[in-house]
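Mods, move this if it's the wrong board.
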Amino acid sequence: MNTPRHTLYLLRLVVALLFVSAFLSRCASMMTPTGGPRDSLPPVIVNMTPDNNTVNRPLVGHEKIYIEFDEFVQLKDQQKEFFTSPAMKKKPTVSLRGRGVVIQLRDTLAPNTTYSLNFGSAIRDNNEGNPLYSMRYVFSTGPEIDSMLLTGYTADSYKADSVSKTFIWFFPADSVENVAEYDSTVFKYKPASIARAENNGIFIAQNLKPIPYRVYAVQDKNDNQMYEPGNDQVGFLEKTYNPAEMPDFAMWYDSIRQYVTAEPQLYFRMFTDKAFRRQMLSESERPQQHKAMLYFASAHPKITKLRFDSIPADRVIFDPQTVGRDTIALWFNVPSADLPDTIKGEITYFKHDTVNRLQEVTEPLKLAWRLIETKEQEREREKLERDRRKAEAAGEEWVEPKKPNPFAFKLPTSGDINPENHLTVEFDYPLVKIDSSRLLLTRLLEDNSVEDVPVRMVRDTGQLRKWYIRAPWKTAGQYTLTIPEGTITDVAGLSNDSIVGKYTVLDPEKFATVKIRVNGRDDGTKYIVQLLDGNNALKQERRDVVTGDIQFNYVPAGEIKFRVIEDKNGNGKWDTGNLVERRQPERAEIYANDEGEDTFATKTNWEIEFTMDMNRIFAPVTMQSLSRLLDEREAQRLRREEEKRLKEGPKKNQQDRERQQQQQNSNFNSAGGMFNNFR
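Not the wrong board. Structure tokens:
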């Protein structure tokens, strides 16, 4: 932050005045009589030994640091909340003593380095558990304290919402290798300085040097100060950033969340990278007579050949079970009598060698299966055998009872139909035959007459065992679907019993209709427009949107939002990023109107229209635009909270205002060492 000297002086003065006023306010409330209002104020620091911001501290032989408060305190989530910047190999110990905490440094420190001990919200008063946010203790092993600041915002690149408690790692640009095509910074080096974002996703990094940094954001889920691909969210920036050359920013105290926040200078789009796993066929099994499973160690295995001794290649059905295709089912379209107990063959695929190069290899396959009776099946078989012997002893003819049909499927036999989605049916096994001519769909009209309706079954393009029953559905009338016995046959040779279902079509007047005019870019970029409910759950989406009109039908009454994805590669889905390859994730934004509203109400039989300008939605992110977006979101959040309070009653509303006022009176006091760099 390039702050003029007079501005810095004013900031120091303001901070000092607010700190004194907060301290006096806090002291005046310490003698609250028993039975008074609940204490909602955090502890106040009254003494630090040695003083905060001391310099020329020793590298070894550290004296204990004691921080005293105006009341007894407790430590909560210390392992998660407490961290040092830069990280120490041996983490300091923190313990309670009297009305304070004792910190014992255990590591050998680096020379001429500014260290900060960050407590997060670990310090809380002993009685009510009120947290003291953002408490820091700062010292230097050199003659001065580094004092530059940098702010930023961390957001989930797909959800387009803040990511809390993210660690921000700063690497001096001249201490790491220049990145071209392969970025290994976070794996090879240790950050020189560390900050952490608050619950609103905003961070204020303090005690930086006036030098260029390469900056990364890591959501350290395991609290191990390490980046774990596939587990931790990560974000990176394309350039280097010098805090001394960044634009000025404003800081203020959030009286509701109880911590200092700021205008963000940097913007991280967080994503989950794919963890590297050496590709190999890790396991194979045959859980059913007609089904085998292949389990690979990594996603998207490249299989070039699959051969079995006793089964023709065109009788083997390839069925990926997971999105990443690391689990594959093989279905054998062969009569049960022709399937051996052990199927032998071989698979040719690309496997990582000892130096992690993909090489084509051929490995044998041995898939064994045998029928294992369950206890229930054994008891049933023994009962039938007893019944048979009893009938034969009495000279009676014994007829074996008909067994339940093992042909399995999932299809609702009654309910409402969305004509856009049709009827969905899922089978346990892939199908090999459908006699569509035997499908019968009728519609009962108001005069009790019946008309035949054309109907057909269509397989899902992505899921092998998922099918749709499609017909020209109309809102009036009752539909009856009949699938006669033996119409459908699967790979195991099993066929269906007679299936009958009765349905009604959803009435569009009981739903809302959403129409959107899309103004796309001239370059023909494709977009995905998703309709979300008030809880951000995906309800509908339209893919391959370029420009023109789209429409969402059968939208239930309630709150809705829109997520818009910039589908750069046109594959119809959102794609994550890659840290090593320095590839950012595809942009996804929550649509907001000109007033900044991103949540909209719908009612039955409503028709709502929107206009989405993709040039505005996907405009370059600047400090000003990001600050405006966060201000709009915060204003919406406060409005919703106010509406909630009004619904709960004026009494609670007044209590909340009084509590917020008390918290605001102690605002900068609660920030602890937040502004120690200005003193």
